Amino acid sequence: MENPSPFEPRLTLQESAGRLRLTDKRVWQFIEQGRLAAHYDRTLHRWFVFESDLQEFAQTARGPGRPRRTTPSPVSQSNKDGGPPKPGQERKTPMAETRTLAVFNQAGGVGKSTTTRDLGYELATRGQRVLVIDADSQGSLSDFLGLDPYGKPEAEIFWTAVCADMDTVPPLATAFGLTVGVSNLSLIEGIERLERMKDHLRFLKVLDGIKADFDVVLIDCPPSVSEMTVQILLAVDELLIPVQPEQKAIAGLVIVQKEIIKANKRRLRIQNPLRISGIVPTIFNPNLSVHLNNLKYIETIAQTLRCPVLPAVRRLTAVTEASTYGQPLKVYKPSSPANDDMARIVDCLFAETAASV
Length: 357
Ligand SMILES: Nc1ncnc2c1ncn2[C@@H]1O[C@H](COP(=O)(O)OP(=O)(O)O)[C@@H](O)[C@H]1O
Ligand SMILES: [Mg+2]
What we know:
By secondary structure, this protein is of the alpha/beta class.
């Protein structure tokens, strides 16, 4: 049978129990027996059942039929260290688990690296332990944080350990209170090695090994789709999509959407679908009517992606200057209104950390 859409509605166990007119406990028993497919959302700390699985179960099961989706057995996951808890034992503490976000858009020049830097810095000023990973061989993020990626030998580059299948922890730098996984042109060769490795979960495993030390991991994706992007989209829980309110950039969102669908198909057996945390309109000029109009198109696309449009980041010269000087905007020019834009984005994305400002 065909796989369901990755954006298919899903229900909590309580909602599923209500639909089936069963107790929560009975529904969980069906899941434990492998008769009803469920998946654990590590961001929301909850179990979910896809609507189509529930319908199929309601029609055929309660009999001996097997679920069509081959999710890992919740029983084995629940009992392993670090695996998802059983219902009722889910963690209630916000930010208790590391949030992993890829800043993703296949188009270049839409503000991915800038957004990663300033979002990361804003979170760090709120007391969050932030890891930002530069996944672009251009090394812009590293450069925008004053780290001179080209002055670094290959051994100091985050991806060397990942792409060489080395059993060592990737090297991490620090800048402005952020921990940084630096990248440079050596990543091009690294991606070739990653392709030869034929282990699509290589980055997922590396990330799982280091993320516990951080509250938030932000990955600045390259403006192309390669084995590296595939691995990033398999490894993270959430996506943030920066887009300029320009017609060409908006049209490019169709390609982004296709990549998300592809990634979610790959993730079906191992991960929950990607959570699209929002589209960020970037390099936005509120005085341009064309930009204001294009925001409406972005809203429409966000509806099809079932995600919010986050506050826009204004186009201001200081943002580019900050990059030239290798500093977060808030360090280079604390009075810049674009800092307020970034703070508003953090308020929306990380509501639970807003109180600590
Ligand atoms: N809010 C902004 N205002 C003005 N310039 C910006 C803004 N955000 C990004 N830029 C500039 O746009 C260019 C592309 O941004 P960048 O973050 O490198 O995009 P990407 O990573 O998507 O290629 C850079 O020169 C950057 O300084
Ligand atoms: Mg970039």
